[in-house]
Amino acid sequence: MTVVVIVDDHPTFRQGLRAVLEVEPDIEVAGESGTGEDAVTAAAEFAPDVVIMDLRMPGIGGVEATRRITSTSPHTKVLVLTMSDADENVFAALQAGARGYLLKEAAPAEIIAAVRAVSAGQGVFGARIAARITAYFAGGAATRDARPFPELSQREREVLDLLARGLPNAAIAHQLFLSPKTIRNHVSNVLTKLQVSDRAQAVARARDAGLGNPSR
Fold this sequence. Notes:
The protein is of the alpha/beta class. It has helices at 11-22, 36-46, 61-72, 87-96, 108-119, 127-138, 140-145, 154-164, 169-176, 180-194, 199-208, and strands spanning 2-7, 27-33, 50-53, 77-82, 100-103, 124-125. The protein has eleven helices and six strands. A six-stranded parallel β-sheet has the order 2-1-3-4-5-6, with helices on both faces. It is elongated and about 60 Å long. Mean pLDDT is 88; it is low at 141-145.
């Protein structure tokens, strides 16, 4: 029996996915969660074989929840099921330990097959995701190394780069033609995704990764 926990912040989607999975005699849905924090708690409580994980959720989000689950519960495999096929989301999820990545447009049969495959230790990726991964690795190590912090969006990476150059929020807002409030939100997201407690720690990590160089 493959024990599953479903993590998504939309109750209707969770209910629909549960209905699809529970028809299968070899799959049991042990629980549901609507936030990243609850997902980590559910993984510890139910010790599922597979966590089906959305990425965009309240709280710590799916990438950080995946990282925590795979580090504390190595038996549990994470299958991402989300709307986003953006490169930064795909590779951040994989770096966090996800064993599969499907889009929500996937057919029920594809999701069921992916749950079984991931539970068995296989990697599973939808066709569009597999194409992105192939292109990424075909680009070579130099291309990959040029993109630090894949968990950040392109805009968040720009904000972090400017932070590492020593710019305050007002100057970053002026340079990027954004409001100070938007910059504050981006900075908060950067701190959360990098798991640091303040700007100084974020700047230190950014400079270690080569950000903050005016010639970039």
